[in-house]
Amino acid sequence: MTKCIIIVGGGYVGVQLAKALDDKAEVTLIEPHSHFVHAPAMIRAVVDPQVLDQALIPYDDLLKNGKVLRARAESIDAAGVTLEDGTEVLGDYIVVATGSNNAIPFKPATDSIKAFRADSARIHAMLEAAQSVAIVGAGAVGTELAGEIAHFMPDKKVTLISSEPSLFPTMPSKLGTALQAKLNDAGVTTIFGARAENLESTTEPYAGELQLSKGDSITADLIFPAIGSRATSTILETLPGITKGAANRVKTDPWLRPSDLPNVFAAGDVAESGDAMTIVAVSRQTPWLEKMLTSLINGKKVEDMAKYKPWGKAPFLVPLGPQKGSSYLVLFTAGDAITRLMKGKDLFVSKYRKMLNRT
Ligand SMILES: Cc1cc2nc3c(=O)[nH]c(=O)nc-3n(C[C@H](O)[C@H](O)[C@H](O)COP(=O)(O)OP(=O)(O)OC[C@H]3O[C@@H](n4cnc5c(N)ncnc54)[C@H](O)[C@@H]3O)c2cc1C
Question: What pTM was computed for the model?
Fold first, then answer.
């Protein structure tokens, strides 16, 4: 008999896995948004909102056999998933891929894509009117945002503030040094080893004054909080045997199971599997899950399957606008040309449009 697989969350894990299993099982993908939100392009959309037309991709054409259920999952048990309206969806295997939250305009604040577009347009207008911009947090999102603003709006005074001693201190130093030099050349002021003590909002940009832990203060017409993602793990919290890790993620066993329920799996940002919270990590987890679930459908047991191995040294690409950037590609650190070709130019928009069967 055909097995039923429920995937909760239509982000990078959900979309790729649902598509891969569409002709192998009865797939139900549960996702409240009408469109897939391609996160890397949301940074450029702050400076160029037209990017949203391509990078918000409807789910309508994703599956040929299975279905995308436009709904929010409320709870999970071994038998299936209960939706917010009380409907029960029954399944043999459940994959939880509810991802993570971030500030607007990087990720939607509600289930409405229309509201997300309006937020993005509002923040773009605030940015256009601003003369000075402060970005709090110099992870990939903050650093890329500084680069995008410097490229597309060179007249703005941009300050990037980090509590770390340098850019990307856990990566080979060549990467951070090169990126910092490119940002500084483009007119971005970088401040390291300073915490913003009075961040008024972690969920949306605002105008105001930042008190820094070093004692000084910065006034900016627009302050972007870019202090990292937090996993959306609420629906997993009540399962037996759950343990939380950093950033609200749930810990998984070597077969990506977060709880005592043997048929419930978790992947992507919500799962602390040993991987970083990146699409790059998802690109390794999803084929593994596809293979494992295909074997389960064919009668194998989870424990007979090879364990998932997290990606220790994964590639890391940081464009600074469409022309410049630097990338850690494991064997070497690449500069502008390769970063532009691999990511900066198109931000993988075509790849994900193709994945969702949109051209
Ligand atoms: C601005 C930005 C830029 C980024 N750029 C890069 C990059 O260039 N390269 C890279 O490797 N990584 C990047 N990342 C990280 C990357 O976006 C995440 O690692 C990735 O989105 C994780 O995929 P996911 O499938 O786990 O979750 P997500 O993509 O977060 O998707 C989760 C989905 O689950 C849905 N959901 C949540 N709760 C429920 C529920 N209760 N019921 C049903 N559905 C639910 C959400 O609506 C969402 O669609 C970026 C992140 C941000 C914020």
Answer: 0.98
